[in-house]
Structure formats: structure tokens, C-alpha cells
Specification:
Layout (H helix, E strand, L loop, with lengths): L7 H10 L2 H18 L1 H4 L21 E9 L10 H4 L5 E12 L2 E6 L9 E5 L9 H8 E6 L10 H37 L1 H15 L3 H12 L3 H27 L3 H8 L4 H9 L4 H25 L10 H8 L9 H27 L6
Antiparallel strand pairs: 1-2, 1-5, 2-3, 3-4
Helix pairs in contact: 1-14, 2-6, 2-14, 6-7, 6-9, 6-12, 7-9, 8-9, 9-12, 10-11, 12-13, 12-14, 13-14
Length: 369
């Protein structure tokens, strides 16, 4: 099939598929989205927010192994199907132990301690485990050896689980913030570019005022106005990113509105809203798509900065920025991986979005076809 017989969309997809790093980044982001959505299926710690930890095993190195005793709670919480996506409630009290033994209808255990000379022994009656009395079954069902592949953080929580669940915040902030910026930016950019005159002057004045305020300072102000929280950060970041979209859309609309097919649409009596949304905007989306990919990366970095400052996702919700904040002191205390691992994860995600943006820019450049 000749190039002249293919649509512009087909040509763009064909060029994008030839870009190795663009396709590689797309696959990487798709895998990461799958990991984020199915986080509680993948994470070793499937408690809500992967928040279980014990100070006795804090700041352990990757590959650390310990025996965990699971003691059933007296009152078992109800389970729901949504727990598989939002985290399971605590069904057990978990205790790291060095050793254990069963004698006289009780289970004796030595609480975990790095110093083998310090032995704190406690016991729990076998009746606490319900009707299960067989010692071997107790060992199989309630005593497990757990491996922390990436070690534990300063609260004794599984770093790998926190990393997996924390990816939800970074990916969600990208989608929600970019969606808000597109809705607001396309609206203001379209009316400014199409109507011109006083409407254009007002929109440009508003854009210049917002653009003159440092992004992080504006996000902090909006966050403080809306309150600290998960969704407040999403809205705050989105409301600071629309100005770039508006400027791009305005320029595209101003050039397209003089096209012959737009003039013909006016002559046929079409409403301005129909001309804008059905004829002009669909033909001006290429640069908007490219800038949206860059805004994804910017939103992730801004959210991480807010979390580092304590204004982002609040405890106990994990995010990569808050993980860096909680563990950055360990960079000079001999365990830098506690802060480097979430930092590298953030770097790879941002880099992937930037490379997709570059690939889309090349694929959507019709002049280079």
C-alpha cells in the first residue's frame, strides 16, 4: 500500500512502531500500570497500604529472612472482594521470632533480636489458634519464613511492597493531573484562539499571571487551600499545568480557523461550538498529545516533591516521594538503597514518559513523513 493511500493516523502509528525506545517505553509503562493496578496480588505484603511492619526488623538489607509468627485476632474482620484491589484487613498479629517451641498446650517463642544474647521469651496458649491443635499443622499454617527481597524500611515495612503500592500514586497523579490540565487548557485555548479580541486578551492575561508564579509555590498554595490529601494533590497539580496546554491549543486554533473547511462550515451555518469541537480541535491534537506526555513526567516529579515536603499523599498512603523523605538520612548511614530504590523507580518512569513524548513528536511530524 502506498503512503498516499494511508491515513495520517496509520502513518503516525507506523513511524512510532519503528522507534525502538518509544515502543520500549510504552511497554515499560504498560507493565508498570499492570503492576500498580494488581499491586495487592503481586506485593508480598497485601495489607492495606502495605503498612505492616515491626521495629525489631527495621532497616534490614535486601534478602533479609526472618520467621514470622501469625497469631489470629480474636475478632476477625469481614473480607470483601474489593480487598484484592484496596488491601486486606489484618487477620493476624504478626511477630518476628528467633526461635519457638510447643509445650504444655502453649507455644513459646523468643522475640526477634539482632543480639543473640538478648532473649525475651513469651508464650501464647494453643487455644488462641482456634481448633487447630496439631503441632505440625500449627507450624505449617501460622509460622512462616519470610524473605524481604529489597529489605525493610525504617519502620520495618517491606520495601518491595511499599514500592509496588506506591507506584499507584505516581501513575494516578499523571493521569488525573494531565486529564484536568487537558480539560481546562483545551477549553481556554480553544475559545481564546477562535474568538480572539477581548476573549483572547483576557485568557492570555490569565495565562501570564499563572505562568509568572513558580509551579511548586502555586501547587503548595492550592494544596494548603484545599487541604492535605490524596485527591487534593491531584487537583492542585492539574490546575497548575493547564497553561502550557492552553498556549499550544490557542496557537493551533488561530492557524486552523483560517482554513477553507472552517470558512465553509461557517458558510453552512454551523454553530461555533460545533466548528470548534468537531472540526478544529481534532486537527490540532498532535502537539497536545506530545505535551501531555511531558506533563505526565512533570506531574510525577511535582507530586514527589510535595510528598517529600510532607504536602503530598499522607501517611499511611505510600508514595515514592514520601519513601525518599522517610529514608534519605540513610544515604550517609550506610544504607543508601532505602532512598535510591524509589528514586531510581521514579527516574525510570519519568524517563519513559519523556521518551514516549519524543517518539510521538517524531511520529506526528507530518512534514518529516
Amino acid at each position: 500500500m502506498s503512503l498516499s493511500n494511508q491515513s495520517l493516523t496509520a502513518l503516525a502509528l507506523r513511524k512510532f512502531r519503528k522507534n525502538f525506545w518509544g515502543v520500549f517505553s510504552f511497554v515499560f509503562i504498560a507493565i508498570l500500570i499492570f503492576v500498580a493496578v494488581s499491586g495487592y496480588f503481586i506485593a508480598p505484603d497485601n495489607s492495606k497500604y502495605a503498612n505492616w511492619g515491626d521495629l525489631a526488623i527495621r532497616s534490614k538489607e535486601p534478602g533479609f529472612k526472618v520467621t514470622i509468627l501469625h497469631i489470629p485476632l480474636e475478632t476477625q474482620p469481614e473480607s470483601h472482594w474489593c480487598d484484592y484491589f484496596t488491601g486486606h484487613p489484618d487477620y493476624f498479629t504478626k511477630k518476628p521470632v528467633n526461635a519457638y517451641r510447643i509445650a504444655n498446650d502453649s507455644l513459646y517463642f523468643d522475640e526477634y533480636s539482632e543480639d543473640k544474647n538478648i532473649v525475651i521469651t513469651d508464650k501464647i496458649p494453643l487455644s488462641a489458634f482456634g481448633k487447630e491443635k496439631d503441632p505440625e499443622m500449627l507450624k505449617t499454617k501460622y509460622i512462616v519464613e519470610k524473605t524481604f527481597l529489597l529489605g525493610t524500611d525504617n519502620q520495618g515495612r517491606d520495601l518491595l511492597s511499599r514500592l509496588v503500592i506506591g507506584s499507584r500514586v505516581s501513575i494516578a497523579i499523571g493521569f488525573v493531573a494531565v486529564l484536568i490540565s487537558l480539560i481546562v487548557g483545551i477549553f481556554f485555548g480553544a475559545i481564546a484562539g477562535y474568538y480572539g479580541g477581548k476573549v483572547d486578551a483576557f485568557v492570555m492575561w490569565l495565562i501570564n499571571v499563572i505562568w509568572s508564579i513558580p509551579t511548586l509555590l502555586l501547587v503548595i498554595a492550592i494544596t494548603l487551600a484545599l487541604g492535605k490529601g490524596f485527591w487534593q494533590v491531584f487537583v492542585a497539580v492539574g490546575l497548575t499545568m493547564w497553561v502550557e496546554v492552553a498556549r499550544v491549543v490557542r496557537g493551533q486554533v488561530m492557524s486552523i480557523r483560517e482554513m477553507q473547511y472552517v470558512t465553509a462550515a461557517r458558510a453552512l451555518g454551523y454553530k461555533n461550538s460545533r466548528i470548534i469541537f468537531n472540526h478544529i480541535l481534532p486537527n490540532s491534537m498532535a502537539p497536545v498529545i506530545v505535551i501531555s506526555a511531558a506533563n505526565f513526567a512533570s506531574a510525577i516529579l511535582v507530586e514527589s516533591g510535595l510528598s517529600f515536603l510532607g504536602l503530598g499523599a499522607q501517611v499511611p498512603v505510600p508514595s515514592w516521594g514520601s519513601m525518599i523523605k522517610d529514608n534519605y538520612n540513610y544515604i550517609i548511614l550506610g544504607k543508601p538503597y532505602l532512598a535510591i530504590i524509589p528514586g531510581v523507580a521514579m527516574l525510570l518512569l519519568v524517563l519513559a514518559f519523556m521518551m514516549i513524548g519524543n517518539a510521538l513528536r517524531d511520529a506526528l511530524d507530518v512534514k518529516a513523513s
